[in-house]
User: What shape does this take?
Amino acid sequence: MKALLICPAIRPAVPQLSEEGPLATTPILGECLVGYWIEHLAALGALRVQVVVADRAESVRTALGDGARWGVQIEVTAVGAEPTAQEAAARFRPADDPDWLAAPNDIVLMNHLPGCPEQPLFESYAGWFGALLAWIPRALTLGRVRVSEVRPGIWVGRRAHVAPTAELIAPCWIGDQVFVEPGAIIGPGAVLEDRSVIAKDARVTLSWVGPDTFVGPMTAIASSLAWGSGLTNWRSESSLRVPDSFLLCSLAPAPAMADGGPSARAARTVGAPARGAAVPRNWIGEWPESTRHAPNSNPST
Amino acid sequence: MAGVDPPRAEFQSVDLTNPFSEMKIENQGECLSISEITELTAVNSANFRDQVRAILPGSLAVIEIDLGDTRFVDSSGLGALFAVYRAATQCDGLILRLLNPRPEIQQLLELTQMQQLFEIVQR
Assistant: This one.
């Protein structure tokens, strides 16, 4: 059986979500949107999935690989502009080929999460965040074992570190390899994506913190999306680039770091002190093993 | 320096000019009004802080800092605002208001929880 996925191109209502990569690979509770869709289609019996991409196709190709992870064969096709479902059908689906999933799963424009067409993702930041919270109970599909529900409404990654004095308030999602320092308050309605760091006494409420994001000590993220140094209030849709890295910054290596050229070495030299200042001193390794979160235990004792 | 009062000055209308920004400080009797702050950064925050603190305590009842023209504030600017707040809290009954902050400045105040310190008014 075959299926076709149309990746959304840039949406003007949510520009921050496509700053780091195409919308199809935007992280949602530790997985990307296109990943959820391929898992959904594979569960319906799809063996071949064609992914049509108008924005940064190489990033989508890298994120998906060959599809072996889902047991499907994936073909990523780059196009100049995002097609409608009708245009995609006319162009990519032969009329005489019966070997396709039944509608509406044969050709899908990924504007929403699987099974949630009533919650569009990219019409506003508020809509995106609402869809995210609604998706939390459904995010733990069978193939995902790195996050577990440790208390009703509280999901914590198995390799997350949560300080004993941190407070977790349901509903909240703490992704894999997240670090929550003492005194931090997470929730209600908080999503911390993988590898984010919440420093001492910080508070995250009704907000989404993107992957590899450092939230500084005693800061308060409320009704916002924080990713790298970008901060967007999903109620007012106001956006801010936070100028000081000790308040909010990205911990992901800059693209220049990826190669080994002179510019990369210079960037490392310049960036090292700043990163050292931003990352908490008790970063991995200095906390006693007993404070690490163990599966099926209460992380906020 | 303990026990020594900070220097005091009376300004009727003072324009503080530096290569990067300008701000206007007007003392209107009981109200000190600070406006035309295009940015509050490491460049001008010390100047801003020192000028305002020099006027305190005087006979002021209200300090109004108009951030309507302010496009950029960094941690130095936040520090200057906090320094003014601390100086103001030492004066009984002195009200400190931030006027018309842009949404992104309001976000920064909320991120640092400084919105709890100030009376923020949109006019």
User: Anything to note?
Assistant: Chain B touches chain A through twelve residues (CB under 8 Å). The helical segments of chain B are 45-55, 75-89, 103-111. Confidence is low (pLDDT under 50) at residues 6-20 of chain B.
